[in-house]
Amino acid sequence: MRNLAIAEEAAKLLCEARRIMVIGCSGGGKSTLSRKLAAALDLPNHSMDREVFWLPKWVERPRAEQREILSEIAKADRWLLDGTNPSSFDIRLPRTDLVIWVRLPRWRCLLGVYKRASQYVGRHRPDMADGCVEQWPDREFLSYIWNFERRFAPRIIQEIDRHGASVPVITLKSHGEMAHLLDLAGLPH
């Protein structure tokens, strides 16, 4: 994994990238960052939750269909893909110019999920598939967030090394670092 510090080199690569993956734990702000980046860089913004994973009423789309959709998106010349799912890195990473890993502390992700739920509970959230009404986080989802670094980060690193070892990765550990990267790149936030 080729990790970049948040500096001028990272900002330059961000501005030049035509295909960007934004990954990280739920609640960390990756969807908000993705919307800002896609708008500022004039890239088509693809939310994996909205377009790939979910069908109405929280029914998970079959894996084969998920992979077909991702393959079509990845073929395009320009895109920003918002979503982690390391099992699809084999499709996405070979076509990716830059990975942005939103890697906030778990307490911050939990706070973000509760903030999001309080805003959207009982309604449709823009980053989610039609017919998926926001709910209060259940124990399973909270456990996923609490254990994300221990359970999922090693697999993310393994899959990046396997399918995109030469792809630069910018790791953002706070909202301040997100804002700093946008400032360095001269992008609005």
UniProtKB/TrEMBL annotation:
GO terms for molecular function: kinase activity. It comes from the Bacteria. Keywords: Kinase, Transferase. This is Adenylate kinase family enzyme. It comes from Peteryoungia aggregata LMG 23059. The lineage of its organism: Bacteria, Pseudomonadati, Pseudomonadota, Alphaproteobacteria, Hyphomicrobiales.
